[in-house]
Structure formats: C-alpha cells, structure tokens
Design brief:
The strands form 2 sheets. This protein has a 5-stranded parallel β-sheet. Strand 2, helix 2 and strand 3 form a beta-alpha-beta unit. Helix 7 packs parallel to helix 12 and helix 10 runs antiparallel to helix 11. Helices cover 44% and strands 11% of the residues. It is globular. The two termini are 37 Å apart. The protein is an alpha/beta fold. Among the domains are: 135 residues, Rossmann fold; 56 residues.
C-alpha cells in the first residue's frame, strides 16, 4: 500500500495534534508512530518495499499517510519523497520561529539533548554556538525555523496545490475548522468531528525541576547514540528498572504535574530582538511564498501571549 500524504513538520508546531485527529477519522489510516525512513541515516533505497509494508493495514481507506516533523528542515527528504511518492500531498504546520525555538529547547532538555538551564541563557548559547560541541542536537533549534527556505525546497518538487500550510495559532484557536480544512485537502468526509479536539498530545513542559525528573525516566527507557544525536529504546528493561519507572511516573502525575504552574518562559528583550533579526528575512520570504501576513509573529517585534 502506497501512502498518499505526509505531515512533514515543523517540530513543536502541533503536528502531533493533527496526526492524532487524523487517526480518529474512519477514512484515514496513519502509521501511529513517526516514520523516519526518508531521513539520513535511515534511508536505503532498496528498503522501499519494507517501508511500504508498514501501510498494508491501510487497504480500503481513502487516505493513507505518515508523519515526521524533521522532514521539513532536512534537505535530503524532499527529493526522496518526490522520487518515491510523487503524487503525495504534503501537510506542514508552522509556528512563529521565536516561540517554536523556546518550545523546541525545552523538548530537547526532556530527552537529554540540551542542558537543563534557563531558556534565556540556553538560547543565547545556541545563538553563539557554545552548545553545539557537547549538545549537537541544539543546532536544529535554529535551523528548524527557516520555513521560507524549507517550503521553497518542497515547492521545487511538489506543486503548490498539493501542499497545505497551516499555522500553529490557527490549530490552537480553531481546531475544528482547521481539521475540516485538512479533511477537505485530503478529499475525505469533512463533516466528521474528532472527539478529542481539546487534547494537546505533546504539551511542552517548561518547569525545569519536572524536566530533570523526566530526563531520569527517559534515561531508563532509551539510550543515546554515540554522537548524542538520536535515541533508541533499550532492548531490555529489568524488573528493578520497571519498578523505578512506575515510581517516577507516579511522582510526575500525582505530584509534579499538580505543582507545575510554569507557563512558557518569557525571553528577555535583547534575546527576542536577536532571534527576530535572525529569522526576519526568511519569514518575509515565507510571506511572499504563501501570500500571507505573518506580522503577528514575534519575528516582526509583536509581543503576544503564546499558547
């Protein structure tokens, strides 16, 4: 079974919300997990039949797809998608790159890819390159926000009418209408109403104390690759580790989650200005590509409350 659509990113922009709501739709089959096959180092052209086998359960569904938020920023992916799935429809969800960088940084902390430190200090060090040697994944925080260049690359391989570009703020404010747009784009029943429009499957944790606790949990569940760029599930988790995990989860759910009142932390004005300068030209490029007005984004200096 050949999939006919893919959610390509951006990271921390509500792609998981769209993924889960599509799984609810009776006309859709989606791989429940992220599918990294088109990214290096997972890609081997000879493995395409094995990739297709993941979607055999989708026979009879009107739309079959998969998701991987890294696909938008990874340069190698768009030509591979075009080669193997030339008729695919492409869905992207974009978020103000300044706000996304804040969420992305905290996400990496939780999985041990970034140091546990205040985001103002952390993102300042990302901007000047001080973290890249010890924490190589932190480089993707900035790269992931160049949507103009990324969308332009995809338009070199896929016609504009086969690309649906959503904005994070639309998903947050108008989830039902946003999903109707997605259903319409995929040519499936747009009258279907998902049950869980109020859920945020991967809500970002900003509290540093709670993130330290989650890192402990993830250390038991996963191992880092030698270059500290990837996580792999541990092959075996012994009884003691399973017991420890239950204790960690209990503390997180019953205690830390209740005490966690941390909102998205505010960046200082100097850091906001530097990030705005960093992304402004590319965001103007994105506006031209989409014919959209994005001046409500902080890239253009507009302060607002983030989701």
């Amino acid at each position: 079974m050949r999939p006919d659509f893919v959610i390509i990113g951006a990271p921390k922009s509500a792609t998981t919300f769209v993924h889960f709501r599509l799984i609810e739709h009776p006309d859709v089959y989606m791989d429940p997990d992220e599918v990294p096959w088109f990214c290096d180092p997972d890609y081997r052209e000879a493995d395409f039949p094995e990739f297709l086998a993941r979607f055999e359960a989708g026979h009879g569904r009107a739309a079959v797809g998969f998701k991987r938020p890294d696909y938008l920023a990874r340069r190698e992916v768009s030509p591979r998608l075009a080669r193997h799935l030339p008729d695919a429809r492409i869905i992207a969800v974009l978020r103000d790159p300044v706000d996304r960088a804040v969420s992305h940084y905290h996400h990496l902390i939780g999985y041990g890819f970034a140091p546990v430190r205040d985001v103002n200090r952390g993102l300042d060090q990302v901007l000047v390159g001080d973290l890249a040697r010890a924490w190589p994944r932190t480089e993707e925080i900035l790269e992931a926000g160049f949507y103009g260049a990324q969308i332009e690359r995809y338009l070199g391989h896929f016609p504009r009418e086969r690309m649906l570009i959503l904005l994070h703020e639309q998903v947050h404010r108008e989830p039902a209408e946003t999903m109707r747009r997605v259903f319409r784009f995929l040519e499936i029943d747009e009258a279907f109403e998902p049950e869980h429009l109020d859920q945020r499957p991967q809500a970002v944790v900003y509290d540093l104390k709670r993130l330290r606790w989650r890192r402990l949990r993830n250390t038991i569940l996963y191992r880092h690759s030698p270059d500290r760029m990837r996580l792999f599930p541990r092959d075996r988790i012994g009884p003691l580790s399973r017991s420890t995990l239950r204790g960690i989860d209990w503390v997180d759910r019953r205690l830390l989650a209740r005490w966690d009142r941390a909102r998205r932390p505010e960046l200082n004005d100097t850091l906001v200005a530097r990030l705005a300068d960093y992304y402004r030209a590319d965001t103007e490029r994105l506006e031209a590509l989409l014919g959209a007005d994005l001046h409500h984004w902080r890239v253009f200096g507009t302060e607002k409350k983030a989701a």
